Structure formats: C-alpha cells, structure tokens
C-alpha cells in the first residue's frame, strides 16, 4: 500500500556518553522532562505531523525501548496498515548482520520500506528534544524538487565546530557537508533530521552497501555520495527549540531548561502535545513539611522534604528533611531523610540513603570521579542501587556498581533489580 | 482466579445528586482525587479481579461518562471478546413511547450474551480499592445465593444508607433504609455477587411484575427468598452521596493512611489518559498538604487541597481546603477557601470566595467568577 511518507527512527545506538544511564537501556528510552522518554519527542512529532507509519530501529539493549513503544498505542500509532513497527536486526539466509551504521540499518529494512512503498522517507534520530512539523519539511522538499532535504539550525559561530555543518548556496541548496569543521564556513548545523525521496535513497543505500570502505553512515557517506553524484540536496531551516541530549551535561541542562525557560519547549502547548506511556499512578502529593519551588513533578511523587529547581519523574519519594537541588530524578527514586543532593542525575529506583551528601559542594575526588562522562559538577547514579547512609560523593562522579573500590570507599550498600 | 465473573456497574443513582456537580453528568462521572472519575475505582477493582466483561448501566446525562470510558482501553477492556459495554436505556427500534422496562431489558440482554458463572453488580458511589477475590471466595464458602459487601460505617454514612441485620451465621435477616435508629452498624457498600443465571431469573421476574427501575438493594431485599450473605470490607471506603460527603471524601485523601490504602496497596487505579505536561512549580509557589495532578502551573499558595489536571494558580493567590477540578484558572490576588470549583471554571483577579467546611461553595462547570 503506497504511503506518502514513512518515518524511521534510528534508536539502536548505545549512547555511551550517558554512562551508567544507558547500561541497561537504549538512549531513546532514557527518561526526560519528568514524564517523558527521549523517544516521545520524535514519536509525537511524527503523529502531530500526520506521519502514521513509524519504524523504530532498535538494537542496543532493546528490551526497555521495545516494551515502552509497544504497540504504539500512547502515540495513536496502533493502526491498521500503519502504526509503530519495532525493527530489530534479524537473521537472514546466508549471512546475518547487526546494524553496522545508520545507513546500513535502513538498508537492512528496505523490504519493510518497499512494502510501505512511500514516496518520501523521513530519517530521525532518537536523541534530540524538539518539536518540529515534519510535514512542513516534506512540503519544502516537494516544492524545491529536492532529492534530499536536511533540517538545519543556526548555531552560535563559536560552537559551529562541534556540529556537522552544511555549506549552502542560494536558496539553501547544500554544496558541502563537513563533520565538525575546524574552520566552519557556515553556522548551519545538521539536526540529524532527513527527508529523502525513497527512490533516490534506495539506490544510494544499495550503492553504499557495495562499497566495503564505507562506514554506512548517513552524514559521513550517504550525504557526500549524493552530493558527489549531483543530486539536489536542500537545507530546511528550523528555528525552534532543539537540543541534543547525548551527554550527561546536555541531558541535565535540557532538563533544567524546562524549569528556566518553560516557554521554549512549551510542553503545555495543546496544539502540539508530546505523548508518553502513562505510569498509572495517583496525582502527586506535597506534604505538610515540604517545600517545592521552581520544579517539575508528575504522578506518583510523594514529597515531604525540600525540592528546589529539580525535575522529578513519576513515583519519586523525597523524605522529610531531605534536600534535592538542581537534580534530575528518574522514576521511583527515593531520597531518604537528611540526604542533601545537588546536581545529581539519579537513575531508576535508586535509593539515596540517610544523610548522603552528593554534588559539587562536596570537594575532592573519589573512586567514582569520572571526568570523561561527567562535567559541571554533576553526579550520576546507576539504577537500582541503595547508597549507604552518610556517604559523601563529590561532583563529577559516576556511581557505577562496576567500579572497583575499597570496602571503605564503597558507597553502594545493595544492588537490586528495578 | 479461575471463577468466571462479569461485572455490572450502576453508573447513576436517582437518589443521589451532588448539586451542580451532577447537573452536567452522571454520579459515577464526577471527577475525584485529582485525576479520576468515581467510576474508575469500581471499574479498576473489577479489572484487577480479572473481570473482562463489564457493563455500565446509565439512565441519562451519560455523555461525559461515555467520553471518559471510550472504548475501555485505559482499563484494558478494549477487547475482541467481551470488554466494556455501555448500556443506555434499551429502546426497541419502533417504540416511541417508552414502556418502562427499558432499563431491565438492557440488563437482561447483556447478562444473556455473557458466558460467565457469576456477576458482580456494583453501585458507583463508593470509592475503594480492592480486588474482589476475597469477596468471591467468601461467597463460595458461605453457600449463599447472594453476597453483599458492607462496612461498619453505620447510619452516619449519609443517605441513602441500607443497614443490614445479620444472623449468627452472617446471613442477612433484615435491611433498613435510612433508619433513624439503626439496629446494627453494618452499612451496605452496594456491591453484590450472585450467579449470572440467578440474576437473569430475578430480572425476568422483575420485568414480569412490571418493575421499571433496577436497584441493587431490591435484590438484597430478597433475603426471605434467597440466602443473602453479608461480607465485611475492612479497608478504606469513601462514600459519596452528597456535596458534603464528596467534600469530606476529598479531604480524607490528605490523610496518608487513606492515600496508602486507596493508591499504594498494590492494585492500580486506571483512568483515562490526558497526556498533560508535568506540573510546574514556580519560584513564588508555596504548597503544603495537597494532592496535585499533572499539567498544572503553580505560582501561588496551595494548602490542604486537591488540584486536578491542567489547573493554573496565579501569584498572590491562596487556595485552601479546596477541590479545584480540571482546567480551572484562578487569577492573581484571589482567596479561595472551602470551595469546590468544577471543570474549566475561571476565577478573575481579586475574587474572594470563602465557604464553610460544613457547607463548601460549589462553582459549576465552566463558570466565570
């Protein structure tokens, strides 16, 4: 059955820069913004844009992601002849492959796309927070008679060398794609949102697959290949809120944006709702001794302590006398009385013991100090840990059960399944 | 749980009105506890018992109930076989003047299409969270024809109240309606269990006798004819049968034990999903002892209150001992105390509304103050 457009969400990457947060789950399934998961944004954008066939390409730790997306019902993606399709790599006669790169992941699902028989394919990644009407982008693609359209966002010139930059000529026709240029010629960064005419992409994917030297990546291989073969690639300018949440610091900052600049992502906007799977919990409760300011909370939270400038997912418990400041707490986290945590990102169900002190105000370094994953004084806790009472954990630490420590320095009392 | 049971919910009660709260909707569709409707509790209890076939009996004003229940998907009742059935008054295609037994005809038809052994019939003015497994087991062990659930609220439960007298073996020997002097403190919770074929016989007999209205307690009243066993429920049960008891039940939610019993005892209470954003507390907010739902924006003071989804409470505004329903907007410099504000009400700046705990002010749906 022919469709106008089908979206494919690349959700198979590990997201290694999120450290322990992606130890057990794929990055798109990581909680964000109190009641969402990262993948809710591209999924909701698809539905709000009128795209009703969405392939979710999963590979790394797919259980949580597959369970979360399920039959697509929360996004109205449980439909006849359309809906959400989980597309894992699969066994084939002769040879079997994991997804080698982003382009290869789509290549391996070309049968799926051929069955859908779309005119256009929208390629999305599962690690950005933004609200975008893909229909407008597809319209621009059609209007300009492009073979491929890449969404771009203007970034500050000083930061341009951190992005994949597109150089363009008149009418936003792309002339060159440069990954992290030392001397950027433009400040138009690729957002990792592509619209391809399926016929063109299909041919390019087959050609790319035949090249043994290719990394089978959209940015690195497919786009340069199309440019070299004289195809028309256009840039589509996006000016709304867009954040990559690929690192601990950016995940934390983007969560804080909900509190500091609520109008930017505007989650309350009824014309462009972000849908999510519901936790089925009662309304949250703020106790007599509680203080909650400048924070975002959702169902099932029970607050008896102090919560300042923090983003809490469902069913978080903050006991009396505990202080939570500038934190991002994932579902089911418990902060015991007397604990004082600041700039902490705490994964599913972890229990912060009595009088634990964690954050940048704790000075020095410890066995969990990790400058590779953590920056800006942020402390990350793995899921399902009971942190010993009275522990102190300095900023830029990642509390990981795989870290070898002395008995004395070990802050983990217990590891449990969540 | 391999006993096959179906459910029948009586979604409205002609004896109970909650003033403006029930003028646009059936009793069971009255919003409660921040994100629920009263019917969610009994419906979830049935689903948590493993019941897969539920009929919801309505008389009139069922639009809001139908909007809420939809296909039954939040309760996992959107099924190919069985599932959720809304039973409006049953009218034959040609009948223009109603014959009076539409209600019973609808019930008997629904009962006949099912294949279960038992049926649980429940009213929708009691909020409790428990599956019915123990109730079913007790029924089977008692050898009774019919079982009725009660608790010991006595005649302080408010009207309508059915006080049960039982013999030494726990069988009902008398039932009194709103007695001035109660002979026992056993007050029916309006939940009964009996064999489906027996229920069909009873309804058929009622129709043959020209009865037009179905009432759960007209079945309990048959204690002379059938063995009616009384089963005591000891958990939290909040009865809603007047504006006052609605307000009291809402305020009871601020008690930690009540909340634990209703929401954290292990069984989930399902409701329609609204996909609201998380609630944002701004720097100026001051909130204590309150239950707050998603999608709110809190700038002002909230104390001892139940706040539903999507409510805005502006700066320099105090909301105390209030029930503020979905989508209400309370502007700056307001003071609300002992007020029940129905859905989408709009309170303009500087308004002061103070009711008494024994007589809360009710502001109707969509009102502008």
What's the short version?
The complex is a heterodimer of chains A (418) and B (369). Chain A contains nine helices and 33 strands.
- What general outline of chain B do the C-alpha atoms trace? globular
Number of strands of chain A: 33
- The number of helical segments of chain A is 9
**Mean pLDDT over the residues of chain B:** 92
Q: Biggest interface and its residues per chain?
A: A-B, 36 and 37 residues
Amount of beta strand of chain A = 25-35%
Number of helices of chain B: 8
Strands of chain B, count? 28
Instruction: Give the spatial strand order of the biggest sheet of chain A.
Output: 5-6-4-1-7-12-9-13
| Oligomeric status | heterodimer
Q: What does this molecule look like?
A:
The complex is a heterodimer of chains A (418) and B (369). Helix content of chain A is 19%, strand content 30%. In chain A, a hairpin with a 3-residue loop joins strand 10 (164-169) and strand 11. The model of chain A has no long low-confidence stretch (mean pLDDT 94). The model of chain B has no long low-confidence stretch (mean pLDDT 92). In chain B, strands 5-4-1-6-11-8-12 form a seven-stranded mixed beta sheet, with helices on both faces. In chain B, strands 14-17-20-23-26 form a five-stranded parallel beta sheet, with no helix packed on it. A five-stranded parallel beta sheet of chain B has the order 15-18-21-24-27, with no helix packed on it. In chain B, a hairpin with a 5-residue loop joins strand 9 (162-166) and strand 10 (172-177). Chain B contains eight helices and 28 strands. Chain B is an alpha/beta fold and 369 residues long. Strand 17 of chain A pairs antiparallel with strand 14 of chain B, so a sheet runs across the interface.
Characteristic terms for this protein:
heterodimer; A: 418 residues; alpha/beta; eight-stranded mixed sheet; seven-stranded mixed sheet; 33 strands; 19% helix; globular; B: 369 residues; five-stranded parallel sheet; 8 helices; 21% helix
């Amino acid at each position: 059955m022919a469709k106008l457009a089908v979206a494919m969400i690349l959700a198979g990457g590990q997201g290694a820069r999120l450290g322990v947060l992606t130890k057990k789950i794929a990055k798109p399934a990581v909680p964000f913004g109190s009641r969402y998961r990262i993948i809710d944004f591209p999924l909701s954008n698809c539905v709000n844009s009128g795209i009703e066939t969405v392939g979710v390409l999963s590979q790394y730790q797919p259980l949580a992601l597959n369970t979360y997306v399920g039959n697509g019902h929360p996004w109205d993606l449980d439909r006849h002849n359309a809906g959400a399709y989980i597309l894992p790599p699969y066994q084939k006669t002769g040879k079997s492959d994991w997804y080698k790169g982003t382009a290869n992941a789509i290549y391996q699902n070309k049968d799926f796309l051929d069955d859908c028989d779309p005119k256009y394919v929208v390629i999305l990644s599962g690690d950005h927070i933004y609200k975008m009407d893909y229909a407008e982008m597809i319209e621009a693609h059609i209007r300009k008679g492009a073979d491929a359209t890449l969404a771009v966002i203007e970034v500050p010139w000083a930061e341009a060398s951190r992005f994949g930059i597109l150089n363009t000529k008149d009418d936003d026709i792309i002339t060159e794609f440069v990954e992290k240029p030392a001397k950027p010629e433009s400040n138009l960064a690729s957002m990792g949102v592509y619209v391809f005419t399926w016929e063109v992409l299909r041919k390019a994917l087959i050609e790319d697959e035949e090249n043994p030297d290719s990394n089978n990546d959209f940015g690195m291989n497919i786009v340069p290949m199309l440019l070299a073969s004289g195809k028309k690639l256009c840039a589509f300018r996006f000016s709304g809120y867009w954040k990559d949440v690929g690192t601990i610091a950016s995940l934390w900052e983007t969560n804080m944006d909900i509190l500091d600049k609520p109008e930017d992502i505007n989650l309350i906007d009824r014309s462009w709702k972000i849908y999510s799977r519901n936790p089925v919990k009662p309304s949250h409760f703020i106790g007599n001794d509680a203080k909650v300011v400048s924070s975002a909370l959702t169902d099932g939270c029970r607050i008896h302590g102090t919560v300042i400038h923090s983003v809490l997912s469902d069913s978080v418990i903050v006991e009396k006398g505990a202080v939570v400041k500038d934190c991002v707490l994932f579902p089911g986290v418990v902060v015991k009385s007397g604990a004082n945590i600041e700039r902490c990102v705490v994964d599913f169900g972890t229990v912060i013991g009595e009088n634990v002190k964690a954050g940048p105000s704790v000075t020095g370094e410890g066995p969990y100090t990790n400058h590779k994953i953590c920056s800006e004084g942020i402390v990350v806790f793995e899921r399902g840990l009971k942190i010993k009472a009275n522990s102190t954990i300095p900023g830029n630490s990642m509390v990981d059960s795989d870290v070898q420590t002395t008995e004395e320095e070990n802050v983990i009392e217990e590891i449990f399944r969540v | 749980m391999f006993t096959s049971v179906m459910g029948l919910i009586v979604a409205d009660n002609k004896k109970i009105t909650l003033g403006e709260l029930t003028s646009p909707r059936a009793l069971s569709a009255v919003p409660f506890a921040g994100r629920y409707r009263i019917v969610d509790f009994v419906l979830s209890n049935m689903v948590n018992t493993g019941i897969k076939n539920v009929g919801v009996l309505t008389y009139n004003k069922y639009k809001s109930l139908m909007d809420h229940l939809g296909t039954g998907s939040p309760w996992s009742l959107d099924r190919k076989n069985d599932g959720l059935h809304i039973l409006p008054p049953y009218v034959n295609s040609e009948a223009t003047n109603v014959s009076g037994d539409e209600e019973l005809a609808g019930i008997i038809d629904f009962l006949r299409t099912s294949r279960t052994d038992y049926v649980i019939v429940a009213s929708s003015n009691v909020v409790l969270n428990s599956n019915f497994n123990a109730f079913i087991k007790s029924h089977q062990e008692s050898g009774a024809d019919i079982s009725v659930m009660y608790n010991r609220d006595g005649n302080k439960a408010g009207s309508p109240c059915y006080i049960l007298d039982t013999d030494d073996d726990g069988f009902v020997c008398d039932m009194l309606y709103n007695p001035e002097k109660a002979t026992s403190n056993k007050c029916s919770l309006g939940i009964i269990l009996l064999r489906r074929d027996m229920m069909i016989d009873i309804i058929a007999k009622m129709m043959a006798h020209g009865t037009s209205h179905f009432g759960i307690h007209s079945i309990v009243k048959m204690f002379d004819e059938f063995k009616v066993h009384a089963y005591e429920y000891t958990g939290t049960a909040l009865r809603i049968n007047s504006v006052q008891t609605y307000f009291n039940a809402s305020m009871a939610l601020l008690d930690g034990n009540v909340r634990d019993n209703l929401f954290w005892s292990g069984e989930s209470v399902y409701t329609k999903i609204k996909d609201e954003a998380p609630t944002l507390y701004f720097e100026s907010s001051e909130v204590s002892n309150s239950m707050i739902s998603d999608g709110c924006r809190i700038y002002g003071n909230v104390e001892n209150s139940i706040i539903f989804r999507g409510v805005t409470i502006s700066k320099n505004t105090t909301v105390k001992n209030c029930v503020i329903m979905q989508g209400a907007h309370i502007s700056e410099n307001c003071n609300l105390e002992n007020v029940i504000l129905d859905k989408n009400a709009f309170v303009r700046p500087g308004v002061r509304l103070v009711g008494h705990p024994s007589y809360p002010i009710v502001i109707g749906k969509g009102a502008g103050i």
